[in-house]
Amino acid sequence: MLDTTLIVLCAGNSTRFALEPKKQWIRCNDEPLWLYVTKKLESYQSFAKIIIVAHEEELKYMKNFNDEYIYVAGGDERQNSMANGLQKVTSKYVMVTDVARCCVPKEVIENLFKHRDMADCIVPYLSSTDTVVYESETLNREEIKLIQTPQLSDTVKLQEAMNQKKLFTDDSSAIKSIGGSVFYIKGSSKSIKLTFGEELSKISCLPTPSKDFFVGTGIDIHPFENGKKMFLGGVEIESSFGFKAHSDGDVLIHSLIDALLGACGAGDIGEFFPDTDPKYKGVDSKILLQEIVKFVKNVGFSIVNVDVSILAQVPKINPYKVQIKKSLSILLGLPSYKINIKATTGEELGFVGRSEGVVVQTAVNLKYYDWSL
């Protein structure tokens, strides 16, 4: 229905999710869950707009997957994220779903639209098959409704409801609080909500991650600067000079960061940590690497191995190889045998051979985190 906008909420931090990636980034074949869910709903109905509400740090990366959707930064609470998304809605109706509700059957969506004129908010629900006790009182389970998403609402009514300071866990309760009407339809037991990760064994609609590997390379060059400490791979190197750079100049870590970002298609180090930003002046590059490793794992990847080539006339690298491997092992959460460090000189050729600076080239392999194991 072209007078309806779809909002997909996926801005959460997945704090209850027991697996390594954020739930919205687990892979279904090659697609992250948020894209898989959105495309599935899009195949059921035609929407005037599709709005993805996501974590601010992931918005740019998400656009790699589909640049036709509208991407909006989420808030600290579901309701804040909702309000942000609703600012972009101009259609009469809006259908809101949580990305965690990843296997909603087509008939539920059709039923929502079939009844959309029955109330301000149309809500799928399940009946309770168990006895329900609230504060020692047994409730009539025939009157219990287990609320699901997506929910289809009158846009103006939902916008009004979401502008309240009180927090609500779903659209219908917010609309009811301002006197709006709610109509309930039967939901589906297939609409399992992915919360802790253990639900994946019960969800049959999701394809498992592809077995592809992703190669990334990074290269960085820094000249020397007298009177500055030298760091390589997070290890302090005994030297009377360090690297000229906006940060601490750890050329190895900078090369590694670019390799990681290259493998997952997320740009380069300057896009994440611009050298025009004063907060990165003199920053410890280990902190930057930790942020990138967290990002790479959050968006659904596992690190397979790392291979580093250091081109330096000075200083001598061999005495520090073991320390560098140990340092990178900790920073990457990777066994040291999956990290290789190679070093060679410039044979007195070029700026490296003249002892003016160092070049480091790094290759990494990534794969999708396999949640099916």
* Amount of helix: 25-40%
Please state the CA-atom Rg, rounded to the nearest Å.
26 Å
What's the overall geometry? elongated
As residue ranges, the low-confidence spans are none
**DSSP summary: helix tally:** 11
User: Can you summarize the main beta sheet?
Assistant: 8 strands, mixed
Report the structural category: alpha/beta
CATH H-tier superfamily of the largest domain: Spore Coat Polysaccharide Biosynthesis Protein SpsA, Chain A
What number of domains? Answer: 2
Q: Quote the beta fraction.
A: 25-35%
Which CATH C-level class of the largest domain is it? Alpha Beta
Distance between the termini: 39 Å
CATH fold-level assignment of the largest domain:
Spore Coat Polysaccharide Biosynthesis Protein SpsA, Chain A
Give helix and strand order, one letter per element, not per position.
EEEHEHEHEHEEEEEHHEEEEEHHHEHEHE
* Second rung of CATH, namely the architecture of the largest domain: Alpha-Beta Complex
Mean pLDDT, to the nearest integer, reads 95
Counted beta strands: 19
Q: What does this molecule look like?
A:
The chain is of the alpha/beta class and 373 residues long. It folds into 2 domains: 4-202, Spore Coat Polysaccharide Biosynthesis Protein SpsA, Chain A (Alpha-Beta Complex); 213-368, 60s Ribosomal Protein L30, Chain: A (2-Layer Sandwich). Helix content is 26%, strand content 28%. The strands form 5 sheets. Strands 1, 4, 5, 6, 7, 10, 11 and 12 form an 8-stranded mixed beta sheet that branches. The model has no long low-confidence stretch (mean pLDDT 95).
